[in-house]
Design a protein that fits this description.
- Pfam families: MFS_1.
- It is a multi-pass membrane protein.
- This is MFS transporter permease.
- GO terms for molecular function: transmembrane transporter activity.
- With 409 residues, this protein is mainly α.
- It folds into two domains: 186 residues, Growth Hormone, Chain: A (Up-down Bundle); 192 residues, MFS general substrate transporter like domains (Growth Hormone, Chain: A, Up-down Bundle), CATH 1.20.1250.20.
- 82% of the residues lie in helices and 0% in strands.
- The chain is built from 16 helices and no strands.
- Helix 1 packs parallel to helix 7 and helix 3 runs antiparallel to helix 15.
- The longest helix has 33 residues.
- It is globular, with a radius of gyration of 21 Å.
């Protein structure tokens, strides 16, 4: 049964916003902390490239399984409870890969890490949608910005720990302990889920369209966006280093520019959404990616590519938050189910994109492989009205109370 309460005051809404922000930051810190120590864990266990790849697949498998379970679980007990429990599970799972004594134990630890992270991902996004509904204006992108900020903090802490020769086990245990105290304290301020609309509870479509079709189209947008994110994470430095023969420092700058632009874009996205609307913003963002990266690949010099990667980060920064809002606010599908479906498709794009680009690079060139990102964001341009339609439907079903205005986070 969903948790329920009377409509909250502005103060409780502001506290809930702060609590959800903490959850997003904590999630980013946790996963980036693990990612920063992968080389040390690999060295400790003496893993070959293929073995490491198979072990890391455990994270993906665990996340996908959690995505499948998240919707029914949230529908049963509410996103507040699932967020609190999954956050504590993530803290408990974080040190396990560094403590694993063997390859098999590492795979099992990464399955648990991926599952707890995936469950928390869906639940905290459901919380974010509910807090936004009560807040009365767009704030969802800023939550995703907090995740990006957490990722930068976690990566910096991981680099510092590695530089000071702190063992992965000690480092991750310390991070997990700090995060556990933090999320446990914040969890009490999370908000109860709204009661589902009668049409949703009955499984009826309230907007005259097929929920599966809407979610499929929104999921396709998220998939295309995540292919671009995966491409930047895995191929931006390689392109600058191998194709344009830059220094290692310049090559590393490529992903840094992308990440910084995405961080700025996410913290700017809510104001832009309020001013221009979700559909228009998604279309403009996708055109920025297509134009910026497309022109950079044509010019094909380092400074142009750095600017192009910045355009990709700025443009893609708002796409997934707006897709999640559109799916979760639709009146004809439960938010938890919608978010779990969209998270699965989005994560699929992040997994599929990098190897797809690698295959195209082998057959053609890496330049041609990255052109796939341009083609896919043009698909987003064509599908942008779906985001606007989903948001409009959701707005009718869950109009926010005019006085529920929280503090700026």
């Amino acid at each position: 049964m969903h948790e329920s309460s009377e409509e909250p005051s502005a103060l409780s809404t502001a506290r809930a916003r702060r609590a959800v922000s903490i959850m997003f930051v904590a999630n980013g810190i946790a996963f980036a902390s693990w990612a920063a120590r992968v080389p040390a864990v690999r060295e400790r266990l003496g893993l070959r490239d293929g073995e490491l790849g198979m072990a890391l697949l455990g994270v993906a498998v665990g996340a996908i399984l959690a995505f499948r379970a998240a919707g029914p679980l949230i529908a049963c007990v509410g996103s507040r409870r699932v967020t609190r429990v999954s956050a504590m599970l993530l803290c408990a799972a974080l040190p396990l890969p560094a403590l694993a004594p063997s390859f098999a134990a590492l795979v099992a630890a990464l399955l648990l890490l991926g599952a707890s992270n995936g469950l928390m991902d869906v639940a905290m996004n459901a919380q974010a949608v509910e807090v936004e509904r009560r807040h009365g204006r767009p704030i969802l992108a800023s939550f995703h910005g907090m995740f990006s900020l957490g990722g930068l903090i976690g990566a910096a802490l991981g680099a510092l720990a590695a530089d000071r020769a702190v063992s992965p086990a000690v480092h991750l245990l310390a991070v997990a302990a700090f995060l556990a105290v933090t999320v446990l304290d914040a969890g009490g301020a999370l908000t109860a889920d709204a009661r589902p609309e009668p049409a949703v509870a009955a499984g009826a479509g309230a907007s005259g369209g097929s929920p599966s079709t809407r979610l499929l189209l929104l999921g396709l947008i998220a998939f295309c966006s995540s292919v671009g994110e995966g491409a930047m994470a895995n191929w931006s430095a390689v392109y600058l280093r191998d194709e344009l023969h830059t220094t290692a420092a310049v090559a590393a700058t490529g992903y840094a520019v992308f990440s910084l632009a995405m961080l700025v874009g996410r913290f700017s996205g809510d104001g832009l959404t309020q001013r221009f609307g979700a559909g228009r913003l998604v279309r403009a963002a996708a055109l920025l990616v297509a134009g910026g990266l497309g022109a950079a690949l044509v010019v094909n010099v380092p400074i142009a590519l750095l600017l192009g990667f910045g355009c990709v980060g700025a443009g893609l920064s708002v796409v997934v938050p707006l897709v999640f809002r559109a799916g979760a606010s639709a009146p004809d599908v439960a938010p938890g189910k919608a978010l779990s479906t969209l998270a699965t498709l989005s994560y699929g794009g992040f997994l599929v994109g990098p190897p797809l680009i690698g295959l195209l690079a082998d057959r053609f060139t890496l330049r041609g492989g990255l052109a796939v990102v341009v083609a896919l964001v043009l698909v987003i341009v064509a599908l942008a009205p779906v985001v606007a339609r989903g948001r409009a439907a959701g707005a009718r079903a869950s109009a926010a109370p005019p006085r529920a205005i929280g503090a700026h986070g």
